[in-house]
Amino acid sequence: MIAGLFVLGACQSTQADELAVDGAASESWYPSKYGAADRLGALNNLSVEKTAAAAKLVTTGKTYSLGMVTGRGTPAYGPRKYDVTVLQLSDGSGTPLGENMATGNDDIVDVWVGIGSQIDGLGHMGINHEYYNGVPVADFVTTSGLTQFGTHLLPPIATRGVLLDMTKAFGDPVAPGTAFNTAEIEAAAMRAGISIEAGDVVLFYTGTMKSQAGASELNPAEPGIGVDGIQYLADLGVVAIGSDTWAVEVIPFENEARPFDGHLTMLAKNGVYILENMVTDELAADGVTEFFFTLGAPRLEGTVQAIINPVGIR
User: Fold this and answer.
1) Angle, helix 227-236 to helix 182-192, in steps of 10 degrees
2) Cα atoms in the 13 Å half-sphere on the side-chain side of 23
3) Phi, psi (rounded to 5 degrees) for 255
């Protein structure tokens, strides 16, 4: 994602870049409200009480797979790619083992974990080489993995999920470049008859993924949440924000001199996790507005992101 759109950033003027850096440097965004030593961010808003309350939302038992299938044809920005090799077990010859003639297969997956449905960890994007809680890049990034903020450190997420169907206000699909800020989010929540609370996971339905089914390339423009909307949700205490789009935030950016300001506001400034390419159309089709959300991120040590398949249950 980032590699592709940073090409757009290269076209900006030197003066605009300098203004963006100066503006970011002047902002006070750490230490975090969760404490200077915190490394989990908004996940601190999860609790056993929140999980128990969310479990009561399960009334029909219907489950929703919120992750897309990731494969060789999944659109992604280069050099990101997916490949899998299937091997016969043992010596690879396929020779059956023992008198019971046991055979089997194994596999090797060569993949960038920033493809398909994914969670962005707090080590994904920072401001001038400082990340969540002001942690310098030199303190946690190595080529062999993150020593802090690795997605393997994320606790299980079992909480209330909220779906905001933005097509009801903007059409289906929502036009690229449409921003959702405080007013739009409050209106969507009112239409859904819900209040957004601390510990929630907020997902948007825009119709984008459904409208682009079968596409071989990502659309560089998309509807999404704006910086004001992100801060609004962060102040409410949500733990993650996701959408049926590849970046979640609106593109083109609200301010071209501040690329990925939405990512920076979520990850670096507020410790709110990003859920990209979420499959939300089935929830929307069923008129679901709140549900039990559960995610156990793969415990791959030191990764910046993780390919995920969260589950919604109503």
Assistant:
1) 60
2) 12
3) -130, 110
Look up the pTM and report it: 0.91
Q: Is the predicted pLDDT of residue 150 greater than 90, yes or no?
A: yes
Per-residue pLDDT tens over the stretch 213-242: 999 888 999 999 999 999 999 999 999 999
pLDDT higher than 50, residue 3 = no
Contacts of 87 (CB under 8 A, 6+ apart): 105, 106, 107, 108
